[in-house]
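quick one, 215 residues, struct below
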Amino acid sequence: MTAKRSDSPAPVTAAPVTTAPVTTAPAEWPDVERLFGVRGEPSRCWCRFFALTGPEWNDSAPGDRKNQLREKFDAGAPAPGVLAFRDGQPVGWCAVEPRGCYPRILRSQVLKAAGPAAASQPGDGPELPVWSVSCFVVAPGHRRTGVAAALLQAAVGHAFAHGAGIVEGYPVVPEQRPKAGPADLYHGTLKLFLAAGFKVVSDAVPGRAVVRLVA
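---
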């Protein structure tokens, strides 16, 4: 599914909650550009927060981040995420890439606190490629309608299809963070990951977890 590329794409507008079927596919840039739009946090971050170090983030502007994400689609590598569609329109995004693509995750307290539980060589077994589910974006009007669950399932399939041995997530535990709003839940919730078969390997940071699904 493609759309005409534009420097100022029309954003996906809010719509009444719908229960129309959700389909998913590896992301293509024109659809990501349309979903992220020109307003709101996705249009400022362009899902580059975890892909940049602190100084790199501070030195970048939204346009720089947009270009960096677009370059991911031009590099010939697997798409850096998956999309959800309803009635042919993009309504959700989930970022999933090899963990090494996310320097901020590698340096995060959540991952460091997990210690050996987050190693790429669990126990005495062979080293396994670890892919990270880092971010969800769901369009207004489509939240709490199964889009995030469909995205996570698609992200897992995408990662395993491209060589992942472990898919890892860093969800929020809302019960321990009752003040967490939508802007805090872009990691996904623990309930979402558990329902998809992930197992908790660390809860050393209150309100956050490291979860894994092994191929």
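Residues 147-161 form the longest helix (15 residues).
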